[in-house]
Amino acid sequence: MSEIKGKTGLDEIDIHDVINSLEKLGYDIRRTMFKGEEYFILNRFADYSNKQFYRFNNEIETPVLVTADWHIGSKGFSEQAFWELVDDVRTFDIKHVLIAGDLLQGKGVHKLEALDLVDLTIESQIDKAVDYLNSIDVPTHVVIGNHEEKLKGKVDIGLDVLKVVSSRSNNVHYYGGAFYGKLNEKFSLFMIHGEGGPTYAMSYPVQKLYRTLIERPNLIVMGHYHILGWGSFDPLHYYVYPGTLQRENTWLLRKGITSTVGWIIVNEFSETRKELVVRTPEVF
Questions:
Q1: 3-class DSSP assignment, residue 140
Q2: Residues β-bridged to residue 192
């Protein structure tokens, strides 16, 4: 934002108007926040004659720790699991952490949510999230989940809590709804939070997404389902369900579904070798 202001002389309102106009023409432009500064990233051109439709938001390298669905502010959030995750960051010499949405519990997602809340104010949830994230000493990349979306659109209208969290955290990059990354300089990575109810066929949601993408990323990370595991479509295209740090919640219990606490470590990702490690700490 500051660079655009300096080069054009426009104010923030005019800049947002121009970007909104470009989006109507078909450009896919992401708005991100990092350390209080707003950034705009061109993900996809309106001109489909370009060889590469999507641009990378950032570059990351293995080993990478992939996680999601912490639900900070809920009774089920496991602080014990979080500190084991931090230990893994150090033990495995993790270079980057990916969080695929639902960092906070938020408010307004379902009718029984009050039974799950331990931090009733969003301010308290934000404070705790900042403290936890500042305990991680490597770059952390975050996308929005449905719990933050519901809060933004239903309870505190327009409040993007992850934008606030990222502006107050030391190493957090926030990308809005999706993250397109370059992995180990050669591969593409796409991270998003899923939608809809749980499924008994683990690969179904990510297969559905995979078929709709213009470009097929080498690694897809999808949160939301509280499932822990990984698989592949072929030798060059893999997917990860990054588990959760929430032991249980009322909605899933009433559905008879058990969350899987844990995360995935991508130790190596190359043409000849893929090494993904499932981590399942003991939590009570």
A1: strand
A2: 178, 222
